[in-house]
Amino acid sequence: MDLTLDGVGTRLGGRWVVDGIDATPPAGHLTGLLGPNGAGKTTLLRLIAGLLPPEKGGVLVEDGTPVHHLPRKGRAQRIALLEQESTSTVPLTVREVVSLGRIPYRSLWGTDPDEAAVDRALVSARADHLAERAWSSLSGGERQRVQIARALAQEPELLLLDEPTNHLDVSAQLSLLAFVRDLGTTTVAALHDLNLAAAFCEHVLVLSDGHLAAAGHPADVLRPDLLREVYGVEADILVHPRTGRPVIAFHEPAGPS
Ligand SMILES: Nc1ncnc2c1ncn2[C@@H]1O[C@H](COP(=O)(O)OP(=O)(O)OP(=O)(O)O)[C@@H](O)[C@H]1O
Questions:
Q1: Whose C-alpha lies nearest to ligand 1, atom 31?
Q2: How buried is 87 (Cβ within 10 angstroms: 0-12 exposed, 13-18 middle, 19+ buried)?
Q3: What is the C-alpha separation between 130 and 132, in angstroms, rounded?
Q4: Distances from the Cα of 249 to the Cα of 94, 135, 158, 225, angstroms
Q5: Ligand 1 mean position to 147 CA, how many Å?
Q6: For residue range 125-163, what is the model confidence (pLDDT) as tens digits?
Q7: What ipTM, to 2 d.p.?
Q8: Whose CA is nearest to atom 6 of ligand 1?
Q9: Can you point out the beta strands (E) in 3-145?
Q10: What is the pTM assigned to this prediction?
Q11: Using CB atoms within 10 A of its CB, is residue 148 exposed (0-12), middle (13-18) or buried (19+)?
């Protein structure tokens, strides 16, 4: 799905927490949404999902339709948002949680035109072995995997992920991002791990205090001066010996001599 952020912004608590973002995440690719805590990443994902109306500018899809003008059911079929926190107490099995992703497709009689979608999503997210487990009994990492499966069951054209690697071990982080990168679906993922973003994203957007500080290919954007300016950290940028992607080597600032 083509996606354009056209000067989008909104206030929360009287403050512009997303303030005039212009960006075009490349269609069919993984875009990393970066920035320090409180920079506005979650708020921007909610604006892109059409869950929050913009107070200025807009989020345009395809031929320029504002996302919040899409009919609710169509929006739910085409855009999946995986939010950061998920409640742990619902008395559902994993399969039932993943089936929630199919609600936008159900007919008036509650039948799903593609019953196999849940199984495909469970397999893709490597959560099929958990299918009959109680949701409330899962670990944080297992829960994250199941939430990914729920988003995939929705078969969205635009996938929005808020810190999808949270709670995942390193192997699961790498396989999840490789999987999402190779989906061919326009995906925007808020990420805190800059090295994962550098390794897997085609494009990154760096937010700072609600503004867009930089956008582009990770190799062009993730430079020492940008990291100093936005995150207040010192780093050297190396080149990955196998992939040629940037590797960020953080270091402590020099102390007084
Ligand atoms: N409902 C709200 N009312 C007032 N302020 C809010 C509200 N929700 C978020 N904020 C503020 O908006 C700013 C941006 O929050 P947001 O959650 O979008 O940041 P973030 O970049 O996702 O942060 P993090 O990396 O910590 O998850 C923060 O300063 C936050 O405190």
A1: 38
A2: exposed
A3: 6
A4: 39, 38, 32, 14
A5: 22
A6: 889 999 999 999 998 888 888 998 999 999 999 999 999
A7: 0.97
A8: 12
A9: 3-12, 15-23, 30-34, 56-61, 65-66, 79-82
A10: 0.93
A11: buried
Helix, strand or coil, per DSSP, at residue 144: helix
Which residues lie across from 190 on neighbouring strands?
33, 162
Residues 151/82, Cβ–Cβ less than 8 Å: yes
Predicted confidence (pLDDT) at residue 231 exceeds the cutoff of 70: yes
- Give the residue whose CA is nearest to atom 8 of ligand 1: 12
What confidence tens digit (pLDDT) does each residue in 157-210 have?
999 999 999 888 898 899 889 989 998 999 999 999 999 999 999 999 999 999
Report residue 101 as tokens.
Answer: 């992703």
| CB contact at 8 A, 168 and 144 | yes
- Rounded Cα–Cα distance for residues 184 and 21 (Å): 24
Cβ–Cβ < 8 Å for 154, 166 = no
